[in-house]
Amino acid sequence: MHMILIGFMGCGKTTIAHILGKQLNKKVIDLDAVIPELAGQTIPEIFASEGEAAFREYEFQALKQTLGEDVIIATGGGVVTYGKSYSTLIELKNRPVYFLNAPFEKLYKRIQQDENRPLGNQDIEKVRDLYQSRLGKYKALSDLEVSTLQTVEETASEIIAHMN
Ligand code: S3P
């Protein structure tokens, strides 16, 4: 049975997924690593050459091929913005979906000037609007919201405690 981590850029999905993977002895799949394999290009290259809509379709394909496997899935922060991905996630029967969150300013600090994140590497107001526009969706999708203001180990323990 899969386990899904969602949340904005910089919330720690990939790091926490790997800690959980070790502790639960499960394979970790990072959708941001699957997408370049499907597209034959890096994420910034997809945005530059094919645009965001094409990126979202690759992201959906990556999600679809991964769901149902007994793995921990680290999604990209924008997985909630595309109708097909969002409805797939909201319709999951036995989700556990965990929303990792922190105050926007903290997240922005972690992601600014990261060239690998085309949507994070913009003016703070634009990125804040993006965060605000997604927040309700992360909350609607998740079974549990977990703060990542604590250490990554504490965050992972909180998720494991919720599973048991
Ligand atoms: C995106 C987040 C990124 C990556 C892409 C788009 C977004 O993933 O999928 O750059 O729209 O928020 P992370 O959340 O892992 O940075």
From TrEMBL:
Pathway: Metabolic intermediate biosynthesis; chorismate biosynthesis; chorismate from D-erythrose 4-phosphate and phosphoenolpyruvate: step 5/7. Mg(2+) binds at residue 14. Binds 1 Mg(2+) ion per subunit. CDD domains: SK (cd00464). It holds the Pfam family SKI. It is found in: Cytoplasm. Keywords: Amino-acid biosynthesis, Aromatic amino acid biosynthesis, ATP-binding, Cytoplasm, Kinase, Magnesium, Metal-binding, Nucleotide-binding, Transferase. It catalyses: shikimate + ATP = 3-phosphoshikimate + ADP + H(+). GO terms for biological process: amino acid biosynthetic process; aromatic amino acid family biosynthetic process; chorismate biosynthetic process. It comes from the Bacteria. ATP binds at residues 10-15, 117. Its cofactor is Mg(2+). GO terms for molecular function: ATP binding; magnesium ion binding; shikimate kinase activity. It is an enzyme of class 2 (transferase). Signal peptide: none annotated. GO terms for cellular component: cytosol. Its EC number is 2.7.1.71. Substrate binds at residues 32, 56, 77, 134. Monomer. Catalyzes the specific phosphorylation of the 3-hydroxyl group of shikimic acid using ATP as a cosubstrate. Belongs to the shikimate kinase family. This is Shikimate kinase. It comes from Jeotgalicoccus saudimassiliensis.
